[in-house]
Amino acid sequence: MGYQVIGATTFCRFLALLIASMLLLGGCATAKKEPMPAQTAAVPATPAPIDSDGDGVSDDHDKCPGTDAGIVVGPDGCELDDDGDGVPNGKDKCPNTRQGVKVDRNGCEIIVRLKGPLFEFDKSRLLPEAIAILDQAVSVLKEHDAKRIEIAGHTDSIGTDEYNQALGERRAIAVRDYLVKIGLKASRFVVKSYGESKPVATNETKEGRAQNRRVELIDLTQ
Prior knowledge:
There is one protein chain. The chain has a domain at 94-219: CATH 3.30.1330.60. The protein has a four-stranded mixed beta sheet, with helices on one face. The protein has four helices and four strands. 30% of the residues lie in helices and 10% in strands. By secondary structure, the protein is an alpha+beta fold. It has helices at 8-30, 128-143, 161-181, 206-212, and strands at 110-114, 149-154, 189-195, 215-219. The longest helix is centred in the N-terminal third of the chain and has 23 residues, at 8-30.
């Protein structure tokens, strides 16, 4: 069997190809594998805070749940009370009340709360003791002589709502008539009855019912 003689040029090309192949294989053998990127665990989304009444304050921070739609509230979820009298703005019929004064549920200043036995049970006639109490209130009313005053009549809870509403009005009229009799102007006074709706004491005892049979003089001038 004979051998084929190749030329020098062909041999050189063959040798170069062989060397290149060896380098390529050697590089593949020693190449380091790149590490796979670590997979990050999915973070669950934080649930949105619940705001049941839609006032902009989440339920877990809302101290006044159930606020009506459209009411402006503070950070605690309660309606604002700009004059600090304890009556929120939306219910305050006398805004800008002076600091420290007593107010009724409408936010209006109570000039005088006539305390003591003013009336007998189921009666609108002033007791003798009531006359002395009213005489003491006159000096206060004279200090507020430019103010319009609501004379608010109240009753205990015995009897129907309708009857007590009428009784409260008769009691307020009795107080007005006496104040006018001793020289105060009738035009200053507005008579209003609240019946049994605003007790200041329990109606379960005789003493509590006596306190609820009362009249309050409330400042209407704002």
